[in-house]
Amino acid sequence: MEDIKTMFEERTSVRRYEREPITDYALSVIYSAILNTPTSYNGQQFSVIDISDQELKEKIYDLTGQKQIKTCNRFFVFCADYNKITLLAEKKGLQMPNVTHTVDGVMVGIIDATLAMCNAVIAAQSCGLGSCCIGYTRTANTEKLAELLNLPKGVFVVCGLAVGVPREKPDVKPKQPKGVVIHNNVYNSEGLAEKLENYDSMIKAYNAVRSGTKTDNDWCSHILDYYKEMMNYKMLEYLKRQGFDVVR
Ligand SMILES: Cc1cc2nc3c(=O)[nH]c(=O)nc-3n(C[C@H](O)[C@H](O)[C@H](O)COP(=O)(O)O)c2cc1C
């Protein structure tokens, strides 16, 4: 295995994959990483749908428009999941608290599923594979996707992850510097706007010369455009349909 620090520094999303399948060993490493995810109270409030069926991948591509989903070897869908504990509680005749009606219940499910996905990203990279998180799995055509994946009440999609043998080595995107991301002991807003302005210019310069499509985007307006799009997502309705009728 390459040096861990270098591995983290060189991580990028990979969106183009070879046709060859990932090995059984690599898949078992990814599964181990997922199964031993740290979770709230060891509640394991998540499930993962491992999609290898090409026809199903293409149907999900049709819903999301993200071509990595049909070209990757495995598409993993990470879900928050309270169906499992509900089933067991019912079987044991125990009262299931209405945790799916609370913001914290939703947050715990999202945190558990996200940590599992993050473990899978690192596991894939350590096996020489490439991956790309696909947020459109959460936001595009939620009703149809829930139907395609046969999601019961108490389960909703947090994010998808495409994994395959890499066919590209993208540039590492410049990230915010240490002084902007990591605060020592307490949050420090001093000079933050100026440091962010520097980062904004750094991204603008990078976007002008990067390999692939070049743009004159800075970081701030690009992200604000994304937030504008985000304002149209109907997540509350989606959560309600999946049994998460959040009231507090
Ligand atoms: C939650 C999440 C959702 C994402 N959704 C998508 C997506 O739908 N399509 C895509 O091409 N990339 C997606 N990405 C990848 C990001 O665009 C990528 O991580 C970001 O641009 C930084 O690039 P890097 O991963 O190469 O450092 C997503 C990443 C995360 C963490």
List the helices and strands and how they pair.
Elements: H1 4-10, H2 24-35, E1 46-51, H3 54-64, H4 68-71, E2 74-81, H5 83-91, H6 103-126, E3 130-134, H7 136-139, H8 142-148, E4 155-164, H9 178-181, H10 192-209, H11 219-230, H12 235-241
This protein binds flavin mononucleotide.
Summed up:
This protein has 248 residues and is of the alpha+beta class.
Overview of this protein structure:
The chain is α+β, with helices and mostly antiparallel strands and 248 residues long. 48% of the residues lie in helices and 12% in strands. It contains twelve helices and four strands. Helix 2 runs antiparallel to helix 6. The longest helix is centred in the middle third of the chain and has 24 residues. The model has no long low-confidence stretch (mean pLDDT 97). The site of flavin mononucleotide (FMN) has 11 residues, from strand 3.
